Amino acid sequence: MRSRLLRPVGLVPAALVLTTIAAGAEAGKSAGPSESLLILQIVLLIAVGRGLGELMQRIGQPSVIGELLAGIILGPSLFGWVWPEAQHAIFPKTPEQKAMIDGIAQVGILLLLLLTGMETDLKLVRKVGKAAIAISIAGILAPFACGFALGEFLPDALLPDPQARLVASLFMGTALSISSVKIVAVVVREMNFMRRNVGQIIVATAVIDDTIGWIIIAVIFSLASHGTLDIASVARAVLGTLVFLAVSFTIGRRLVFQLIRWANDNLVSAAAVITVILLLMSVMALITHLIGVHTVLGAFVAGILVGESPILTRQIDERLRGLISSFFMPVFFGLAGLSADLSVLRDPNLLMLTGLLVVIASVGKFGGAFVGGTVGGLNARESLALASGMNARGSTEVIIATIGLSIGVLSQNLFTMIVTMAIVTTMAMPPMLRAALARLPMNEEEKERLEREEFEKRGFIANLERPLLAVDESPNATFAAHVTGLIAGMRGLPITVLHIGERPKEQEKDRHESHEAVVKKAAETVSANRDAIDVVTRTGRAELGETIADEARKGFDLLVVGIAKAAAAKDRFDRKIDDIAATFEGPLAIVVGKGKHLKQPMPDALNILVPVSGSAVSKRGAEVAVALAGSGSLRVIYVATTRDKGAQRGVSRGLSQETGILKDTSDLAARYDVDITTTLRVNRAPEAAILREIDTTDVDLVVMGVDRIQADHLSFGGVADAVLRQSKVSVLLVSSGEAQRPPAEKA
After folding, report:
1. Domain of life here (predicted)?
2. CA separation, residue 174 to residues 167, 424, 685 (Å)
3. Which of 1, 226, 522, 746 keeps 20 to 30 A from 299, CA to CA?
4. Model's pTM, two decimal places?
5. Segment 325-339, tens digit of pLDDT
6. Residue-range domains of the chain with CATH
């Protein structure tokens, strides 16, 4: 085990020797900026930073600590002290060479803030509400006041410009008051406390801290740019920031979503969505620069808007995070470590001031967060856990300190002191938070909520991102649009309506607008916010199979089909549906409207029958049924055949004890206030029991979760086929994504 832990770091000495020799040779050849030397710097920072980051993660510390330590080891603190000639050869102080890697670091700052914004969960902030805001304000004010007071009493020798002490003091206050939401979220997630009440409050408070911090930094940057306290300039910066935020979170939110979807759906080049996101980040950073505040605010807000995009968030996160984590993070934090010369702490006065800084930062943040937690309604143990988590400064602190150093607000020594404080508080936070969280008991209400959320998280509806609705111009298409709107409106999902009919082109636009209006109206019945759902329409211009295949590549995870003719000959679907199913590999929902739904395709309420078994696909059907029931009713039927030896005993023990699926469905229905009735039928063929239930009750829609059966045509098995053909009411078949072997062929 020990050899495994040391393996990543064991490469560092060899890398140092080789790159030192190469860099020295390169430095001797040319006094100007060198591209090969830049590459060597990047290679060394990434190799050592990622190696130490791996080691830190294995001992329970954030990887960013390893990347910071890599810079400190490679900088004047250690390597420059042991072998100054080699260190200067690798990282020369010449302005031209330094500007090359600094440019990469500046891009890294923007990308780090973009990623931080993408990880900022505003829904979580809204959920915990006033408590997190009150705690955040108390947790910021106390350390800010301490940091500001410390800045006012710092010796002039530590300030780059003693005449601008006010700006330096404001910067110190901000640096001490902001927590690192990234570090906090990682530790809370590792402890499986992300969904616990106190875990949500900790992360939401860190999010608010981060957001307020970047706004303060933006204003201080404007103040520092003018050198003096110019009220008019600061007022313009504050007003510009408020207008920027207001526009971003209203018009900007919708614009960002539309651009991401447009790029995903229309551009064929590789990584088109990533390109659009980077352009959005750059434009918003430039806008904040033009209004007189720092570019990091624009990148941070861009990240929040991208993270809130209702489509493609998982794919975007994976691709972008890999680039930032593997390249820009070790380079940026490594350079921050290079800029921190810990050898200056040999001066007893500076060492004492650094210790005082760590104490003031910890006491101020810990005390402020603890008091805020108490005021916010937390008990002593919860407030202790909150205070422990909020004390980590981590990457946020280093970014703030780097900005302060770059604009001349902080001196080199003051920068070193702040980086040291960030490292100490960040390394102390994980064990403190783990110890505090481990002592927190779970009450019954919280336990029930977590069990319910865990059940829903594994569900089908909770993981949907993009439904595609394929329709023609029939009444069944209108009913399918209504059904899709109910499913999507539950979570505000965007819908794409694909017209696959054969009507003349001059009538297509009117038909599209009709379907779009139906979907929006259906969504409004389940969503208080009329803008929560977004609908676009498209027309299939090529062959049906090719059209569906093109759409499938755009990231749709549910295809709802509503056309005039669903069934053809016995045991066969219409050729159109066969063609659609053959080219779409994901979950498929086929809507077959019958009876009153063809006369009234937009009913006020649905009375649904859902047959269930213990299979995953039947649970999927039950989830969809609950989403559709709304103000209507839901009847769940479980059919126990003669092969089910526990059926008779199940009747005596009660339905909820016999089958977990009935209980799960009942719990899910109760979560959404859906009226539910459960029924058990014994010793009957499933199709006969279902059809009899239809005939003897007032249901008007059957929702069935079905498996695709491997065959030369689309098939869902005999039960689904019998219900589809013999039912007098509408049927919705919700299939799995992959075809299964027929039951007779199963092992």
Report:
1. Bacteria
2. 11, 18, 70
3. 226
4. 0.73
5. 888 888 888 888 888
6. 94-438 (1.20.1530.20), 457-575 (3.40.50.620), 605-747 (3.40.50.620)
